[in-house]
Amino acid sequence: MTISESAKTKAGPTTKPFTIVVLGRESSGKSTLITALCYYIIKQKEEFLLQMNLDKNDTRMLSGWVYGFENTSIPLSDSRLRHEFDFNITSSIKKVKHDLKVIEIILPGVNQIDSGTQKYSDDLRGADLILLTIDSRNVEKDDVYFSLFFETLFSSIDNPAPMIFILTKYDLIKPELKQQPEGGNSLSSLMPATFKRLKYSNYKMPEYLNFSIGDINKDGLSFDRSKVESFDIGYCEELFTTIYSYLNNQETSLKDKKRSQLESVLKNLQKRLNSEPENPEILLEMKSIYEQLGEQGKAKTVDDTLEQLEERKEFQYNLNNPVSLQQLELSQLDFFGDSCWRFQPQLNVLLGKNGYGKTHLLRLLAALLQKDEEKIAEFFEYSKTDPFTRLVVERNEEYKLIRRNKIIFEESIGKIPFLALPDLRLMDKSKTAVSTSDDEKTDLKEYGAYHFLYQKPYEGLIRTFLYQLCITYLDSGKTFDLPIFRMIHKIIEKLSEQPFAFHKITPVGQARFKIEVITEGNENPIPIQHASQGTLSILAIAGLVYSYLKAIFPTVPEEKLSQQRAIVLIDELDAHLHPVWQQKITGLLRENFPNIQFMVTAHSPLVVAGCREGEVSVLKKGKDGFVIEQFDHDFIGYQARELYEKIFEIEDKDLTYLYYTALYPFKGEIEAEINRLDEKKKSQPLTIEEKKKLSRLYDDLYYTNRANEMFEKRLEYTSVLRENKRLKSKIKQLQQESGKRHHGSK
Questions:
Q1: SS3 call for 457
Q2: Is residue 647 included in any domain, yes or no?
Q3: In a domain, 643, yes or no
Q4: Which backbone phi and psi does 475 adopt, to 5 degrees?
Q5: pLDDT score of 142
Q6: What pLDDT, on a 0 to 100 scale, did the predictor assign at position 240?
C-alpha cells in the first residue's frame, strides 16, 4: 500500500489523529524533520487560506488542521522540540482541534534492541506512517544495527505502517549507497517492498521547503545552530503532500459531518424561533451556526434582526421611561452658524422668516431622535471643516448624548419615540366620505416621524384618524360624549369663538363613513371636509396628537391619555390659521396636553403670545449662517404690534393680553378657588377635573399678574408719551410767542 492509499483509507469521518512515528539515532535529524513537517503544513495552510480569501483569524473551518502549536498542541515524546519550535508562528490561529500526532523515538543501543522495540511497540502499532532518519555519515556504521532492529521490529508487529527512510547530510552519502541494491544486507532491502525504489538522485527541494536557518528565523522558527542546517529528504515531497492531502480529506469529512450536525441543530432552532420569534438567545445561536457553515448572507440577516430587536427594546424602554430634550448644539453645519437651542419642558417655539431654515432644523432634530443615519448624513454633506451636532436628552434624571460629526454617529439612548407633524393642509375637500387609507405606514407608534422626515403626504394619517374616530363612535353606542370628541369640541370652540359640534356619523357603503359637523355659524350640518382649512388643521393636529398618545400608551384609560408625557414636533403651526387663532393655539396645546414637550416652528410672531421665559427662539442671519437667538423673557401681555417689532413687523392686538387683563378684577376669586383646592388636596385626592381646574387657575393667576404688570407699564408709558406730547406742544407754543415778540420789537 502506498502512502497515498494509506492516507485515503484513513480519511474517513474518524476523529483518530493521523499518527506519525519518527525513529532515529541520537542527532540523526528527527527534530529537524518534524519541524520541517510542521513548517510545511503551516505554509500550505496559509496558502490555502489565501486562495480561499479567508482571514487567518477565522478558526471556524480549521478543525482538521495541525495548527497553533501552543505548548502541548502536538503530543511529542521528545519535549525538546517545544523549545526548538517557536509556537507563536501561528499565534493568530489557536484553540483548534488537531488531527496530526507526531511521536519522536530515539532508538536504543545495539545491546538494547529487543527491549527498545518492545518499549515502543504500542506506538509503532498505532502508527499510520513511520519515518526513519539516518545521518548519512553513519549509514555504513549502522547497517548491521538497523538490520537487527528491523528484524526485531517486523517480527513483533503485524502489518506495520508504511515506512520512509530519510537520509540527512545527503552530500556525504557514499556513491555505492545511491544505487538500488539487488539483495544482501543493504539497508534498503530491509524496507517494505513499496519503498524499495527510494530516490537517491540529486533532488531539488520545493520552494516552500528550500529554506535556510536565516529564513526560518524570520518566520519565527528557531533551530539549535549546532544541529544539521540543511537536509535532503529525497522522498519527502510525496510524504508531505500525502499528509497534507490526508488532512484536507479529513477536514472535508469532518466538515461534512459537522455541517450535518449543525443543520440538524439549525432546524430545531428554527422550530423554536417560530414560537419565540423575538428570542435573542435563539437568534445568536443561529447566527453562530450560519457563520460556521460559511453562510455569511444568512448570518448578516440574523444580525440585522438582532439589531432591530435591540432597537425595539431600547425604544420600548424609552416609552416606559419618558425622555425630555434638553438642548441642541450646532457647530460648523452648512446653512447654520454655531448655535444652541435650549429646550423648555412644555413649549418651544422657533420663529423665522421663510427660507431661514426652520423646517430644515426641525428635520435635523427629528433625524437625530429617529437614529436615521441616512437623513443625518444629508446635513453634513456640504458642511465645513469640522461640523458636529449634539443633542442632550434626559431620562430618569440621567443625561444622555446623541452626537454626530462628519464621520461618526454616537448615541447612548437608542431610538426615541416622538411625533412629527408637517404643515397639515392635505385633506381632500372634494370628498365627503371617510375611508381607510392605503398608506401602510399609519401606525403612529412606529412611524410617528416617517412622513415628516421623508416629506411624505399626511392625508393617509388624517384619513386613518377620522376612520378610527368613526369606529370609536359606533363602538361606544353612537355617542359623542367621549374624551376625544370633547377635546376637539373644546379646542375649536375656544379658537373660533363659534359653536362647534359633531352632529352625526353615518356609514356609507362598506368601510366608509360620512362625518357631519355644525361649525362656524352654520345652523345646518356640513360634511367635515367642508369646514374651514383652519378648523381642519386644528382638528388634524389635536386628533393626531391624541392618536399618537393612544398608540404609545395602549393600556392608559382614554380619560387620562392627554396627561401623558411625550415629545411632539409641529412644523408651520400657524399655517392657515386666522391671526386670532394664532394667538391662542400655543396656549390651547399647553392646556390640553400639559405634559407634552412641544417643538414648533412658525412664521407669525402671534403664536408666541402668552409664552413663558425661554420658550421663544428666532432664527436670524449671522456671519456664518443662520443662528438661533433665544429670548430669556416671557411674551405675556405683549400687543401684536410689539411682538412684530420684537421679531418681525406688522400691527394687530394681542387678545391673550386683553383676556388676562379682563381677568384682573377677578384675581381675588381666582386666588380663593386655588386656596380651596389646595386645602382639599391635603385631605383627599382631587378628581381629574379638579386637577385640570387647579392647573388652569394657576396659569390664569400667573398670566393675569403678568398682564397687569404690563398694563401698569403701558399706563405709565402712555402717561409719559402724553406728557411728552404736551411739553412738545408747549415748547412750540412758547417758541411761536417768542418769535412774535422778537418780530414786534424791530
A1: coil
A2: no
A3: no
A4: -65, -25
A5: 59
A6: 53
* Count of domains observed in the chain: 4
**Cβ-proximal residues to 676 (8 Å cutoff; 6+ apart), any chain:** none
Write down the pLDDT at residue 453: 85
**CA separation, residue 66 to residues 19, 70, 355, 619 (Å):** 12, 11, 69, 69
* Same structural domain, 300 and 445: no
In this structure, are 93 and 232 located in the same domain? yes
| Residues forming a β-bridge with 330 | 339, 389
**DSSP structural state of residue 737:** H
Q: Which residue has the cell 513511520?
A: 130
Sign of dihedral through CA atoms 501, 506, 511, 512? negative
The rounded distance, in Å, linking the Cα atoms of 707 and 107 is 111
* Cβ contact 589:490 at 8 Å: no
Instruction: Tell whether 79 and 211 lie within a shared domain.
Output: yes
* Assigned domain for 648 exists: no
Per-residue pLDDT at 215 exceeds 50: no
Report the DSSP beta bridge partners of residue 349: 600, 616
pLDDT confidence band for 322 (50 / 70 / 90):
confident
pLDDT at site 617: 92
Say how far apart CA 365 and CA 412 lie, in whole Å: 16
Say which residue the cell 406730547 belongs to: 725
The rounded distance, in Å, linking the Cα atoms of 505 and 478 is 8
Domain end position, chosen among 266, 286, 315: 315
Across 608-733, the runs of DSSP E, i.e. the strands, are: 616-622, 625-630
Question: In sequence order, what are the residues at sequence separation of 6 or more whose Cβ sits closer than 8 angstroms to the Cβ of residue 386?
Answer: 331, 332, 405, 406
Structural domain boundaries enclosing 167: 3-7+20-256
Assess whether 311 and 330 both reside in one domain. Answer: no
> Which pTM does this prediction carry?
0.56
Angle at 161 between CA 158 and CA 165, to 5 degrees: 125
All 3 cell numbers of residue 146?
A: 538497523
pLDDT at 189: 34
Same domain, 246 and 262: no
Same domain, 236 and 301: no
Q: b vs e for 721-730, b when ≥16 Cβ sit within 10 Å of the residue's Cβ?
A: eeeeeeeeee
Q: What percent of the chain has pLDDT over 70?
A: 59
78, amino acid identity: D
